Each structure stands twice: as C-alpha cells, then as structure tokens.
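2024-03-11 09:14:02 DEBUG pipeline.ingest accepted 1 chain
2024-03-11 09:14:02 DEBUG pipeline.ingest length=619
2024-03-11 09:14:03 DEBUG pipeline.predict start
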Amino acid sequence: MKLLFKTILFVLISFSLQAQNSMINGIVSDEAGLPLPGATIIVKGTSNGTQSDFDGKFKIKAEEGNILVFTYVGFTTKNIKVTPKDFKDTLMVSLKNGAQLDEVVVTGLKGKVSGLNITSRNKVRKRNVRIHLRGNRSIPVSQRNQRQVREQESYALVEENTFKTASVSPLSTFSIDVDRASYSNIRRMINNSQPIPVDAVKVEEMINYFSYNYPEPKTNDPFSVYTELVQSPWNTNTSILRIGLKGKIINLDKRPASNLVFLLDVSGSMNSSNKLPLLKSALKILVDELNANDKVSLVVYAGAAGLVLPPTSGANKETILNAIENLSAGGSTAGGQGIKLAYKIAEENFIKGGNNRIILATDGDFNVGASSDRAMKDLVKDQRDNGVFLTCLGFGMGNYKDSKLETLAQNGNGNHAYIDTMQEAQKILGTEFFGTIYTIAKDVKIQVEFNPQLVKAYRLIGYENRLLANEDFKNDKKDAGDLGSGHNVTALYEIIPVDTESKYISEENTLDPLKYTTSTTSQHQYELATVKLRYKKPNEDFSKVMLVSVLNKPIHINEASEDFKFMSAVALFGMQLKQSEYIELKDKKAVIALAEQGLQNDPEGYRSEFVRLVKSYRK
C-alpha cells in the first residue's frame, strides 16, 4: 500500500511540475529594444496562440521541441525552437523591420514641408499577391478584404468638411467629442493587415486619443482653453489653428458612488476570442476599481434579455466576477429588450448625486426588436433626462456596428470606445473610466467667429457628426458633449488667409461678401478669430460663456510645440486614410517625420506605438 501511495504521489508531483514548466514567459521587442504590443505568438502546427501586451510581454503554454512563431505587421516573422531553458528564464525575442507585405504601394512625396527633413528609415519591397478564383478571374487580397469588411461592418457615412468663406459664413459651431473609438479601431485594422473603410476614420477621435500638455485651469471655470496658430505642415500658404481644452483634475478618491448596470451582449455573434472572452477579461479590470459604495447589476441579452446579477455592492467582487465568468454566447440579439431592462434596473437603483450609468458592451449587432439606428436613438434619448447616462464599448471585428454604438452613446449623454486589446481595456476601464464618468462640464459647445478681413476661408478638421447650427450655440436645450475630470479635447481649423489664391476655393462659386460682415474696428483688426465656449455645470440647466481671442501671428512649424507637431501628424495620417482632397502631402513619410518630432512627451508609449502603426500601414 505504501509503495502504491508513493507511486501515485510521484506521478502527481511529476504531473504538477510538468504543468508548471509548460508555461513560457517572454517579451517581444524591435531591434531598438522597444516593446511590440499586439505581436502574435503561435505554437506552430496548432491553434494555441496568444498576443503580447502593451509592454511586449506574453505567456504561452508549450512543450520542449515546439516551434514558436512570432509575427508582427511590418516585421520579419521569427521561429524559435523551445528548449528547457525557456521554461526557466524570460524568453527575449527581437523582431527585425522589413517584412514583405502582401501588397505595398509607395507613392512619391508631393508638396513640401518647409524646414522639415522628411525621411523614412523603413524600406519595404513590393509584392502583389492575388487570390485565384474559378475561371481566369483574380482579385487582389486588399480588394477582397475591403469588400468583406464593408459587407459585415457598419459605419455611418461621413462627408468631409469643406472650406467655408469667412465673409459669408464667419461662424463655425460644433459640440466637443470625447470619443476615441476610431483610433483603436483603425489600430486593430492595421495590426490585422485589413484595409480601412473611409467612413471608419474620424480624425477628431484619432487626435483626441492622445494626451497633450495643456495648462491646468486657473479660474473657477472647470476647464482651461489653449490656442496655437502655426503654418500648415501639409499645405502651402495656409495655417492651422489649434483649440485645446483641459478639464480640471478632481480627486477621484472622493468620487460619488456609482450605480452601474453592465448590459452585455451574449448573442451568437459574440462567440469569438476577441469578443466575449476579451469582454469578460476587460470587465474584471473595472470590477477591481469598485468600492463598497458602488452598486453593480448585470443584464444580458441574446434571444431575450435577463437579469443575471441583481444590484450588488462593489465590495462583493467575487460575486460579481463569478457572474461575469459564467457568461457564454449563443442565440440572436434582442438589443432593444436589453436596453429597456437595463434602464429599468438603473432607475430602480438610482443614486441621487451619484454616477448612474449603463455600460453597454457589444459588437453592435442588434438584429431582433428595435434594430434601426433611429429606433435605438429614440429609445435612449427618452431616458437620458432621467440622469442615467450610457457608455458604449465596441468589441470584435468583421461584424462591428460602429454606427449603432456611436448613435447610442451620443444620444445617451455618454461616450463610445472600441476595445481591441487588454491594454486598451486597461486604459478605458481602469486608468480613465472614473475620470470619464466624473462629469465636470456638460453640453460643452464651441463657436469660432472668424475675421473676414484676415481670413478668406476656413475648414474644421473632423467633427463632421458633431456640427451644430449657429443658433444652437445659445440654446441651452440643445444637447452637446460632456467633459470628464482631467480630459483633453482638441480641435483643428485650417485657415486660408485673405488675398491668397487656393485651389480649394472656386472663385466662381463663392458668394459676394455680405454688407455687414466686412467692417472691422481698428481695435480688433489684428484678431484672426474669437473662440467662444458654452458649458453647464453638472447640476445646472443654464450655460456659462468663455471668450478667447486669437491674434493673427502664425509661427513656423519648426517653432511649434512638440504636441502640435505630433497631433498634426495624427491629423495628416487621418486625412490620408480618408483620401482627403484637402492635403498636398499624400506620403506617410511626412507623417512619420512630424510624429517623431513629438515623441518626447510619451510616458505611456502611445505616441511611439502610433509611429510603428504608420510605418507598418499599407494601402
């Protein structure tokens, strides 16, 4: 009996040691030692794989003798054979630049950036890959993928803003936008070698993804206003006006209690690794941030909607986590029923003076019940006045319905984010979440009045779906975007000076100047524009006004701030992706040159990641 017990114990210990030794820990980096987030690691010949995190770190189960395959867009694939040493030490993997891409189009640099040395260290070889179908037809990979993305993913039509003549239309009015979903969605497409639909590109969301060094508010206003006027880096004889807002940072240790209702899509369309499994892992990050004053409810919807976790204190983390872990996907998508039930639960557990919010997480595929954008819009619009806001989190690829989630968030007084990796989940649901929902100013609107004596025409870059009628600026009943604790918001205008010829303005199509908009007093003759802002305090219904004058003193791009150079690189890349007709520079070398001059203020590495994305992007 003792011999049998020892034998069993030996087998169990051996099995335990073998299980412990089957995990490999490693870091993936480039040749300069910078981490590569989102690198793919697969055990060759199997479906066992993982991705590196934001710091390039990864874990994967393997056996001695297995081949690990490391791939990253724009880098050479590397194969490494597993040895016993790899189970003990951290496996350091360095990937080299210069991988062959399926289809690379390199165009010549058009236009000039005065004073900038535009170079690119990346060299790529051309190679066209075609998929041969029945008969003699062949379709390039890029066209085939483009068709698939357009058929299965949904984006609202975005018509790029045009130049407006200042003498006829001196006012430009829009709502702020704190959404940043477009950037992380584009990042997903680039990392997966997918083409990027034009309507998926929202330039303002790309710019606002990054943080900038704006001054803290010094007055009683909840945010500061910063302006900068710089010669355009992408067009000759134009300038760029930057308007930046910085929200006051509130001590979140004393934040109000939160009544959070997780509304989770568990339909069949969520049954893939980058959807429900990623969602479950992401929500665990948010649960970790809860405290005893917070309440969490869990509503799910598939063929029907149901409450799987009644309101539970944030102190009972294990109960909440178990409810999340037990979720599984299957069935159709009763989105309308789910939202109605979530609002009902939120209203029944409303915390006066607290953060009352529904967190909808889905790929956006509402196909049962109220499924149209208009029906969903009306549903949440009727509820927002009750004080329950809506955050929309998008997941997955191939079936992503961006237009629906954007519509819901905008009309539910909330924000919209797209989560493509666990690092993005940490950013959205961990680092920034409670700052985002801690509203310091609501219904924030911006109106810029341009001086027609100095400005021939102007164009707002991005914000196409946030434009407001000029009369809406003073209308306190008109909904607009909210600003959270510590948030940055940036808007860029491109300006054509008066008496300047431009191919972007057809003289034959312009109207005669209006009689009463052409006179300017000597007191204001040097003012290019006046920036007016309206906002309401969170618990007030009447707006306050801020005014900032902009002098007509543009500086050279080389004298511009590092932040400006970087954000202009992001804007230029966004306009290139949109195939904008308003830029002379069509080559990504100009983007890289600008961005690399703005990498000094990059504590989290997001700017460096942007440069890597641009370098690896292919048309």
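2024-03-11 09:14:41 DEBUG pipeline.report The radius of gyration is 26 Å.
2024-03-11 09:14:41 DEBUG pipeline.predict end
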